[in-house]
Give the backbone structure.
Amino acid sequence: MKNYLFLKRFGGLTFLMILLIFLNSCGGNFFRGADARKVDPDPRVRVQKNLEEGKGFRLNDAIKKGAGRGGGNFEFASSNELWRASLDIIEFMPLTSANYSGGIIITDWYTNNTNPNETIKITIRFLSNEIRSDAIDINVFYKKCDANYKCVVQKDNENIVSELRREILKKATIYQKQTKAKNKSYYPGVKMGKD
């Protein structure tokens, strides 16, 4: 029992000593207050000084730095009309992957009830957030299987690809007009983006 109490006290003292050493190593300013004569009364100046000394960060600056390193500058997926339109057009198909930051949507193999031996798979890759025909790369794959489950996968002709592209762009344009109208109603008199 004596050993237990000794270890408990020794552990508590050890923890306290490590804590004091750690806090003292933080520049020695932990236990001392700031000199009011050296601190600017304007909080904006204090914030700017702390940022320059590396004692804080701005979220906006962190986002810009991330974009500069090739991390990408992404809008929220719900505000990207092209992304939303693509998901709406292929909503009847199950998705394997929908990665907004990677800019790709991949559906699972889909078949309708009329011909269970033929399935279709669609991939949509986003090359830009702008609503234009070269902003998305669409691939459609067909898989045809025989009675012995020997399957052949082939890339589709351009008819379905061009039809999908047209429908996605049409729906994205509608979403863009709705967004502009909503923004104008929220911010009357303020010019929003490209008109």
In short: Helices lie at 2-24, 43-52, 59-68, 81-89, 158-186.
